[in-house]
Each structure stands twice: as structure tokens, then as C-alpha cells.
Amino acid sequence: MERVDVLVIGAGPVGALTAALMAQAGVRVMVIEAGEPQILSAPASDGRAIALALSAKRSLDVGGFWTHLSPFAEAILDIQVTDGNAPVLLHYDHRHVGDNPFGWIVENEEIKSAALKRLKELGIAVKSSTIVESWEFTASAAKATLSNGERIEAGLVVAADGRPSPTRQAAGIKIKGWDYGQSAIVCAIGHEKPHNNVAYEHFLPSGPFAILPMTATQTGYRSGIVWTEKRHLGTAIMAQEDAYFLGELSEKVGDFLGQITLAGPRFAYPLTFQMAERTIDSRLALVGDAAHGMHPIAGQGLNLGIRDAAALAQVVVEGARLGQDVGGTAVLERYQRWRRFDTGMMMGVTDGLNHLFSNRNPLLTAARDIGLLAVAHCPPAKRLFSRHAMGVVGDLPRPLQGLPL
Amino acid sequence: MDDTASISSTSSAEEVARFTAMAESWWNPDGKFKPLHKFNPVRLAYMRRVLCRHFNRDATPIAPFTGLSLLDIGCGGGLLSEPLARMGFAVTGIDAGERNVSIAQTHAQQSGIAIDYRAGGPETLSGETFDVVISMEVIEHVPAPESFIAQAAQRLKPGGVFIGATMNRTAKAYALAVVGAEYVLGWLPKGTHDWKKFVKPSEFAGYLRHANIETSEIVGASYNLVAGDWVETQNLDVNYMILGVKAV
């Protein structure tokens, strides 16, 4: 039976980053991925534009992903927040918090593709089209029987297999969650005028509507759309012809980008909230969506997953350097303690923001406008908000600070 | 830790099961050896740091000590031998308790770590020498500490490193390690420690000097009740670690 230190289930960005950060420090890692190799080598567009916070970008840099990703990443230099059709309430300028951009917008498939390139560069074994058929957890190891009949023994198993996480289910870890009754319609648009690296977030009663600056292609300027709607409306809008859809979209976007066109297929995703009851078990750690899935209102999902990856890699590498059992309770409890506060807060804030903004209650509307104005006129509060969104507050794992493990 | 129950040399399935169960108790971080598990990270961090410095090894790799040998005297269930083997040392672990040695062997095998475990004291290894000899929390349990150190020193190569750890014979150590840990907190079984056998740092350094080992530093370790963790300290009143190099 082959033995590795860490067995990562899932070769998506969070699983791959966990594997890369650990392997770079000398931990023996293997990755199991259910997807087929041809899908993995050229991931298809899923319409999702991902906002990477500064700290997430730093981690991807430390993990060696960023060199593959930077040609596809557009910097966010300004953020404009509006409530309904009121004038701009909040204007975040990156120069108020330092020299770095707020973040970057990258297409999801580019992150997936960069992740796989990096795993290959590091010589990390990725078993594709493979799932774990059964698990055995003993005091000294986790033993996996794979769908190809192989058996692998590992000190630690990392579940990075997304929201449904078969690994989490096999461990019997329950999730808590609810459905927002909203869908996010996502697509890329082309436009006549430059976006000037500004991200726009309009809070509308049906849910947030965001326009995110993307890299230009030969065909011109591009932006990513995240259009949140009540579920039934979302379904109805998706069912329309492109021309009608574009008309509706143009109305929402306004005319500041000039004429807009569809620059790729459109997708709709149901919005749900879920959180695993615990993020560790015997020889098991959950990372990314396997541990928590949230509302995209603040663009924090992948960022939170990247913070999981960085924290887990750091506790495992530091434990390994002390000769500790990398899947032992000492290492895993440190991971759970480190992530609990950040995850809980971010989940609560994004959920709260959605409840606060996705409604027409006049009292709430007045309260949130006063709140936003108060933040806008109080620079220290605004700076703290920005730095939170950038992920540079708190006791950060080294990769999030741009430091190697 | 002074268990001398003997086992037959042939290991039956029943015995393996018995030792596996006992190994699980030794290695359970919340079990009866919890204090040692809590204490280990600070000791291992210290050993890694000073040994990287002494042998001029890069501290970044997980296993910087490949090619060096280490003798763990009083290895118990292997709580230090295994991590040190993971750091790259070729580890030999010895313990007076045959049962401890069987437990340690069983656990190392299950963890896939190669360690040479043997029952006995340092005098049973005549002729063999090591780059590093450690003896952690053992000297306060032996009847003749000075000759114990002399025996340990003979197992050390010239220029090799000795690391020991024990408790100081102070009123504070009595209050914390005997009254506190055994009677108040119940961390250790009553009677684990005999305060009269605790060793002052000056005495320890003296034993080492007579064995041709020059003490280069002594550091304290103390328990931070708020953080629930052990930390290194300058204060040698209770727990301390002593580092020495054998003359070439």
C-alpha cells in the first residue's frame, strides 16, 4: 500500500493550493480528482468571475499559481457601492489603504487551469477520473480504497471536494444551511468604453448586482456580471433569448460602458448558505466549499477557501518540522481554532449584508443608508472595512502575508 | 515508566493486540500521557533549533538531520523517538521497561517509521556511539544520576551533542511539579516524582563535566496557564533543558 503524508481530495483551486503549499515545503502529497483528465487540462467556462483579495493573491503567489494567472487578472482600483438608484453612497479608492489594488478579477476556469499547471510543475501526482470508494480511519493512518482498486494510506486527508463533499459525508459530518431563494445569473460582457478598473456593486431589492472589471481581449473591453434575482425571476430571465436578455441587462448596467454585448455563455446558480458542523475529524480536515458555502454578495467564497488552504498548510508544515503526526489532534485542532473566528465572521457578515440589502423595508433601507453614509464619512471605519475585504486583518497565515512556509 | 513486566520473545496475535491497545493509550493526546504530549512541542522545537545550529543544517526541510544518529535514553512509548526519526535522525530508543519498548515498537511499525528499539540501560550498548544522545525526564528517576550520565556520555561520539531535561530541586518545583501536577491538577499519578531526586542545573552540569561534556546552555520551560501551552523561558526554577558538547 502506497503511503503519503497528505491525501487531498479535489484538484480545484483550494485543494490544489493546499497541496502545492505543502509539497513546496517537502510534505509528500497526493491528489485525487473525480473529473476527467481532458476536462482538467482545459477547464470550460462556467461564467464565473472571481474576485481575489490581496491576501488571496499573495497566497497564490507563494503557491506558484500567480505566474500562470497574472495575464488573466484585472486589478480592481476603485469600488463604488450604491443602494438602489440613489447616488453613489460609498466610494472606495485603493489609494486610501496603500499602494496595492483592492483585488483582482479572474475567470474561474483560469484559476482552475493555473492550479493544474502548478501541480504538474511540482510533480504532484494527480489521479483523475478517480473517487474514493471506501475509507478506513485507524489510530495511525487513514486508508482509502480508490475506484481503480488501489489502496492509499495517508497521515491526513484533506476534503477539498466542494459543496456536496462526498468525503465530508463519508465522515458523517453534518451541515447546517438554508436556501436564499435567489439565483445568481453570471456572464461576461463586452463593452465599448473602458471600465477604468472600477468594480460596481448596486444593492437592489431583488439582490446585489455587480459589474466587475475583467481583462480585455482582442475583441475589446470586458466585464463580469453577477446579477442576483429571486429564484423564479432568475429562471424566467434565463429562459429568454439572448437579445431580450441583453436588453434587460443593458437597462441594469446603464450607459456608462457604452454599447454592451454578451462575451460568453450565461449561467444561473442557486444561492444557498451551508456550513459544516465541524471542520476537522479523525485524520480529516475540510477546506473551502466542503467546509462552508456562502452568498457571493461580498465576493468572499474562494478567498475564504484560500485562507483555509494557507492556514492548514502552515499548521501541517510546522507540525511536520517538529516531527509531529500531521494528521494528529494537535495539528488539526490548531487548524480548527485558527479558522473558526474568520470563517464565522465572514459567513455572518455576508449573510447579514444580503438580508440587509435584499429587501424593501423602509426602516431597514433608511438604517443601511445611514450606516453606509456613516462609514463613508468616517475614514478609519472605511479603512478597516476595506482592509477586511482585502483579507489583511488579523493573525494571518504566512502565505496570506506573501511569505513562504 | 519503570514497568519491567517481561514478555516472551515470541509475539502472539494476542500480545500484538495488547500492545496496540497500550500504544493507543501512550499515544492518545488526551489520555494518561497528556502532560507529555503537551510538553513535547516545546522540547522538539528546542532540539530542532539547537541541533540545526550545532550540525550546521538548514532548518527549512522537514528532515534536516539525515545521516546523523541519535540515542533516546528512556524512550518510553516513543513520544520523542518518532518525531526525531521523522526529522531525519537514525534513532535508537532504549528503555528499562520491556513493555514500553514493545509499545514503542508496535506504534512505530503502524506509523511506518523505522526505529531501533531495545530494552535496557545505556550500559547495554557498549561499543556503539551516536552523534546525539538525549535523555529527557529520566535522570530524576534513576538511583545513581552521576554514573547514569557517565554511561550516557560513553555513547556519545567526540564532538557530539547531549541534551537532557529534568526538574530543579527548588521549593517552587516542589509546589508546582509535585503538589500542583500530582495532587491539585491530577496531571500525573501521585508518586510520579520524588522531589529529593530532582537535579539542580549546577549538579547536572557537574555530572556532564566529569563525563567530558561541556555545558553550553541551559533553558527553562514553563507552562502558560492562559495559553495552555509550554514555552521556553530564562527561568530555570522548575523544568529545564541542558545542552552540552562532548570534547573532541
Name the features.
heterodimer; A: alpha+beta; FAD/NAD(P)-binding domain; eight-stranded mixed β-sheet; 31% strand; B: 248 residues; 37% helix; disordered N terminus
Q: Can you describe this structure in just a few lines?
A:
The complex is a heterodimer of chains A (405) and B (248). Chain A has 405 residues and is of the alpha+beta class. Chain A is 36% helix and 31% strand.
Plain-language structure description:
The complex is a heterodimer of chains A (405) and B (248). Chain A has helices spanning 13-24, 37-41, 54-62, 66-69, 108-121, 166-170, 231-239, 242-253, 301-321, 329-357, 362-376, 379-389, and strands at 2-9, 29-32, 49-53, 74-76, 78-83, 90-93, 103-107, 125-127, 132-137, 142-146, 151-159, 175-191, 198-204, 207-217, 220-230, 260-262, 267-276, 280-281, 284-286, 292-293. Chain A has 405 residues and is an alpha+beta fold. The longest helix of chain A is centred in the last third of the chain and has 29 residues, at 329-357. The mean pLDDT of chain A is 87. In chain A, strands 5, 6, 12, 13, 14, 15, 16, 17 and 20 form a nine-stranded mixed beta sheet that branches. In chain A, strands 1, 2, 8, 9, 10, 11, 18 and 19 form an eight-stranded mixed beta sheet that branches. Chain A has a three-stranded antiparallel beta sheet with strand order 3-7-4. In chain A, strand 18 (280-281) and strand 19 (284-286) form a beta hairpin. Chain A has a domain at 2-74 and 104-177 and 273-359 and 394-401: 3-Layer(bba) Sandwich (FAD/NAD(P)-binding domain). By secondary structure, chain B is α/β, with parallel strands linked by helices. Chain B has a single domain (13-246), classed as Rossmann fold. Helix content of chain B is 37%, strand content 24%. Chain B has an eight-stranded mixed beta sheet with strand order 3-2-1-4-5-8-6-7. In chain B, helix 1 crosses helix 4 (98-111) and helix 5 packs across helix 7. Chain B is globular. Mean pLDDT of chain B is 87; it is low at 1-11. The A-B interface holds A 3, 25-27, 138-141, 153, 317, 320-325, 328-330 and B 24, 27, 29-30, 37, 40-41, 44-45, 48, 59-63, 82-87, 107, 110-112.
